[in-house]
What we know:
Blueprint: E1 4-11, E2 14-21, E3 28-32, H1 45-49, E4 54-58, H2 78-92, E5 97-101, H3 105-115, E6 120-125, H4 137-148, H5 152-159, H6 164-172, H7 183-193, H8 198-208, H9 216-226, E7 230-235, H10 244-247, H11 249-252, E8 257-261, H12 267-286
Amino acid sequence: MSGVHHRTATVEGHEIFYREAGPADGPAIVLLHGYPTSSFMFRELIPLLARDYHVIAPDHLGFGHSDAPLATEFDYTFEALARLTAGLLDQLGVQRYALYVHDYGAPIGWRLALEQPERISAVVTQNGNGYEDGFVESFWEGIWAYGANPGRNTEAAVRSALSLDAIRWQYLHGVPDPSTVSPDTWEHDFALISREGNDDVQLALFRDYHNNRPLYPLLHEFLRAHRVPVLAVWGRNDEIFGPAGAQAFARDAADAEVHLIDGGHFLLESHLDVVAGYLRGFLGRVLS
C-alpha cells in the first residue's frame, strides 16, 4: 500500500494543503471534496487508488488545512476556488487527469473541465451535482432564497447548516447502519468550519452557489462533445443531491456508468469498499 504525503503549495499567495500518493508518472486522478469537509473525506480511498494512480486531493481555500483568509480579505466564489485548484495542478505539473467530484467539488471540477477540456481523461461524480434534476428542493429552497436576497431574514435558515447537528445529519441521514460512520467525521469538520470568521466564508459560498446553475448546459455540451467517460456512484438516500442527479448524466455522457447505492451523502464513510470497487474497475477500463 502506497504511503500518503501531506503537503502544501503556495498558489496566488495562499497556502493550499493537499494529500498526494502513488506513482508520479502514473495516470492522475484529482479528488475534489465537498462541504463541510476537506481532503480528509478521501483519507481511506487514497491508499486504495495509489497502487496504480497518481492521486492528488487538495483542501479548498477556507477548508481543512488550507489557508482560510477572512471573507473580507478574499472573495470566496466557486470561480475563485476553481482558479486556485487550476493553479495548484499547474504547479504540480499535472497535465491530464481524471476528476472525482463530491458536493462542492462538482462546480469546481466543472469549471476546470470547461476551461481546459483536453486535460480531463474521465469524470467520477459521487453525489456531485451537474443537473437541475439533482436538487432536493426541501434542502435547497432556503439557499436559493438567501442567494437571491441575502439578509437577516434569509440568513438564519442557511446559518443553521453550520451547526454540529446539521453536519451530523449530513453524515448519518440515509445510512442504513449509522454505526458504520465514525463521529470523528462530523466532529473534525465542525471544528474546522468553527474557526473564527469561517462562518462568513461559508455564507459567502452559500450565496454564490446559484451561480453554478448556468454552467450546467455547458457541462452537458462538454460531455456530449468530448465523450469523456463518466462514472456516477451515488448514495440513493441523499436528500441534498437526489438520485435523479446521478441518472441524469446518462442523458449526455455516452455509455455513462451509473450506480445507486443504499447510502447517504457521504458514501465513502459507509460504503468505501463498494465505491472503491466500482472506481477501480472504471478507471482500469477507461485509463488503460
